[in-house]
Write a structure and sequence with these properties.
The complex is a heterodimer of chains A (498) and B (293). Chain A has 498 residues and is mainly alpha-helical. Chain A has 21 helices and no strands. Chain B is built from 15 helices and no strands. In chain B, helix 5 crosses helix 9. Chain B has 293 residues and is mainly alpha-helical. The longest helix of chain B has 35 residues. The chains are: A mainly alpha (498), B mainly alpha (293). At the A-B interface, helix 1, helix 4, helix 5, helix 6 and helix 7 of A face helix 1, helix 5, helix 6, helix 7 and helix 13 of B.
Chain lengths: 498, 293
């Protein structure tokens, strides 16, 4: 083949290739690439719809990094960043929930047809009993009957249809999640007419009478128990990290960052805890840190050495999970501390949920958890579980491993790549999330307690009209996402291949 | 773990997932004065709550416009407000269908080009595509809104459809799928004298059917739920899509919890049915999409 004809052929190939690409690439250029370039320009300009409109036309200026420096020095930005990170603390719980759901679903539900027939009968009896009583007019017991009937229906369905029925029910909230379910939850959370508080207030009345009948010291002991557990969690994390470092699975940088992460909940503890408890916590942790260093120096034989950045990703995720646990414990401890004084006045009141700055974020997190347990993550885990080779379980059984040991030594390591993927994706979406919830349920309030970064972009860019500033926020957001993605690329594979 | 205990756990979890929906349906059938009561069961089933949502005056209004016969005359308030749930529903279905159609067509062609045709620079262009998937949608939204203003597309259906119609994700998903189709088929078809278009249309597309179905479902559902962009783009109530309309409904008549719940029930139930029918494809598609890691 001559050179000319070859060139002609390759030109024709490019032409066909581009022809097929054309419809997509034109749209891509117009609605992705062009806005991308514009957005970058915007972020460095002072374009503000309040300055540049049909009545008032001040010159559009290039302002350099002005938007970014204003952003990073504004209290609002850091507050909303804090909100976003706070809401992201639900991620470990939802991942754990998805994993639990997937493990339950992947069990053998049949267990011999005799047993399942028995379950079927129980379910059917429930349903028909409810039906008969409903026809006779059930009256007061109607609610109990309703719940009983639903349980019976689910049980019957589950016994006949197996895990598919349960999986469908688990997945429903995620599938419908959106404005409709958020409005639904807003009504569920309604403080005086919502069903959640209707269930909670009699429970809380009982709790408050129980608290009042106990000597105050017993409840206070709960605070100290929480403090003790935080210390134990910290010690556990610290010990594990050092152990990994000693065995060469973790480098110095990873060790340092992970330990610093572990101390964050302790350092912020004095915000919530009484001075004495926070002081004890700080002292204990400082002591542990110090003791660890001394012991490390004295008996620090390191049979293996790792490069400085080895194992960073895994260690950070480990620390982050412990961090969330410590935050929860500190929160519980703080509740325990205030319980007696809250209970004595009028009895315990159920929270105001979305209209209380302290409860609005937890309320959103509970709802997000409800939607996230049966989400795509559960389906990914299900697929992963069906791919775990059966021989591994058999080998573990021969070695005499129990149910828990099998999970910890076979299932969990086999699922590590999926877990890592889910964690990274959840973090990326979490950073950009919260807009729909904030817009439909709380308007970012109360007092900015639920304003996330994405909602901030909306208010600045589309309500106030500060386009340049809003673009700067989006690029900052992109920076965070970029860091996480790079992090994933650099450290992810190593962690997964362990 | 005994089987009974397992079922017990699963039922408890399922109950948590289902209870909010049960409350929703039951509340939608209550008279308004029973809404805040402890019992969830309505004393009588009030199907009338659904009536204002299902009224079809807007359809008859269209009929009037086109055929000039007066089936029903809208009063001024209805005309001005244009609050019609059925209309919002239709808007959502219409926009989501258009986006889905365009996306499947353009993505499948692009995926064909990226996976079955060889041309210099192909992989570089593909990685550029892939790179933009990492960008938060928010980055594009502010300038895109200005683009829409200058094109005069604010508050139109086109303004919703066009930016969503060209997706890097769809191209990526279909490319991954097409790569699994054996290359010997191409050669056989080309030896038989088929053009590239015939190859695409008669060989590759039919074989990619599961991938196309998955993309169709994802795109349709995603755009049906889409909220941020329609919220900023749409100004007139009669063009609202369902999520924006629900928000409007919540702020205008949110006190009528029973009617609001009826509206939500009507928006959620078709989704549930769709999911139960299509879950086989969905589950497979999600698991396929993650293989990429």
């Amino acid at each position: 083949m001559s050179r000319a004809s070859q060139r002609k052929r390759s030109r024709r190939e490019v032409a066909t290739g581009l022809l097929f690409l054309a419809p997509n690439i034109l749209g891509f250029l117009a609605f992705t690439l062009l806005p991308l370039v514009l957005s970058l320009l915007l972020a460095f300009s002072n374009w503000d719809l309040r300055l540049h409109n049909m009545f008032r036309d001040e010159p559009l200026k290039f302002v350099g990094l002005d938007n970014f420096s204003r952003l990073l020095s504004s209290d609002d930005f850091w507050k909303y960043m804090g909100n976003t990170l706070f809401l992201m603390m639900a991620i470990p719980f939802s991942i754990a929930g998805s994993l639990l759901a997937a493990v339950l679903l992947s069990q053998d539900l049949d267990g011999g047809s005799c047993r399942s027939k028995w379950l079927l009968v129980v379910g059917a009896v429930f349903v028909s009993g409810v039906g008969i009583l409903a026809m006779l007019g059930a009256g007061v017991a109607a609610m109990t009957l309703l719940i009983g009937g639903v349980v019976g229906l689910i049980l019957t369905g589950g016994t006949m249809g197996g895990s598919t029925v349960y999986r469908t029910l688990f997945y429903m909230p995620h599938f419908c999640a959106g404005v409709a379910t958020y409005i639904l939850w807003k009504k569920l959370y309604s403080p005086y007419s919502g069903p959640i508080n209707a269930v909670l207030s009699p429970v809380l009345d009982n709790v408050s009478s129980a608290v009042n009948s106990l000597p105050p010291g017993v409840v206070q002991a709960g605070l100290w128990l929480a403090v003790l557990l935080v210390i134990v969690l910290f010690a556990f994390g610290y010990y594990r990290l050092f152990d990994w470092w000693r065995q060469g699975d973790l480098g110095q940088i990873g060790l340092l960052i992970a330990v610093v992460l572990l101390t964050i909940p302790i350092a912020t503890g004095w915000n919530w805890l009484p001075v004495l408890a926070a002081g004890v916590l700080l002292l204990a942790v400082a002591g542990l840190l110090f003791a660890g260093l001394i012991l490390g120096l004295l008996f620090g034989d390191r049979p293996f050495k790792a490069s400085a950045d080895e194992g960073l990703g895994g260690a950070m995720i480990f620390s982050a999970v412990l961090m969330v646990g410590m935050f929860v414990l500190i929160g519980l401890g703080s509740v325990m501390h205030h319980l007696p004084e809250m209970a004595t006045d009028n009895g315990l009141e159920p929270p105001q949920w979305l209209s209380d700055p302290a409860w609005a974020k937890p309320a959103l997190m509970i709802m997000a958890l409800w939607a996230a347990v049966g989400s795509n993550n559960m389906l990914l885990y299900l697929a992963g579980l069906s791919n775990v080779p059966g021989e591994l379980y058999e080998a573990a059984s021969i070695d005499g491993a129990g149910r828990f040991a099998k999970f910890w030594h076979v299932t969990w390591p086999q699922l590590a790549p999926i877990t890592f993927f889910i964690v990274v994706m959840s973090m990326i979406y979490g950073l950009q999330g919260g807009f729909e919830m904030a817009r439909t349920m709380t308007q970012g309030g109360p007092a900015g307690a639920t304003t996330t970064l994405s909602y901030y972009v909306y208010t600045e860019g589309f309500e106030t009209g500060r386009l340049g500033y809003a673009a700067a926020i989006t690029w900052t957001l992109f920076g965070l996402v970029f860091v996480i993605t790079m992090f994933n690329w650099k450290f992810g594979n190593r962690f997964v291949n362990d | 773990m005994g089987v009974s205990l397992l079922h017990l756990l699963l039922v408890a979890l399922s109950l948590t997932m289902v209870l909010p929906f049960i409350w929703m349906v039951l509340t939608s059938l209550k008279p308004i004065n029973e809404v805040g009561l402890d019992t969830w069961l309505p004393s009588e089933l009030r199907w009338e709550n659904y009536k204002p949502l299902l009224r079809l005056e807007w359809l008859e209004g269209l009929w009037n416009q086109w055929f000039g016969t007066n089936l029903i005359v809208l009063n001024e308030e209805q005309e001005a407000q244009g609050i019609s749930y059925a209309r919002w529903y239709w808007n959502s279905v219409f926009v989501a269908s258009c986006v889905t159609y365009l996306q499947v067509v353009t993505s499948s062609m692009a995926a064909f080009s990226f996976s079955r045709l060889k041309w210099p620079g192909r992989d570089k262009v593909f990685f550029l595509y892939l790179g933009t998937m990492m960008l938060p949608m928010l980055v594009m939204m502010i300038p895109n809104y200005q683009v829409m203003i200058s094109l005069g597309l604010v508050d139109t259906y086109w303004g919703l459809i066009l930016p969503a119609a060209f997706s890097a994700f769809g191209t990526f998903l279909l490319r991954q799928f097409m790569l699994t189709i054996p290359g010997s088929l191409d050669e056989a078809a080309l030896i038989d004298g088929a053009s590239k278009w015939r190859l695409f249309w008669d060989v590759i597309l039919p074989l990619s059917r599961p991938g196309l179905i998955t993309l169709t479902i994802f795109t349709f559902i995603g755009n049906f739920h889409s909220f941020f962009w329609p919220l900023v783009m749409l100004k007139s109530t009669h063009r609202y899509t369902l999520p924006v309309g629900l928000l409007y409904f919540d702020s205008s008549s949110g006190q009528q919890t029973n009617v609001l719940m009826a509206a939500i029930t009507l928006s959620v139930v078709p989704m549930l049915i769709l999911f139960v029918v299509l879950q086989k494809y969905l589950v497979k598609g999600i698991q396929l999409g993650a293989v990429k890691g």
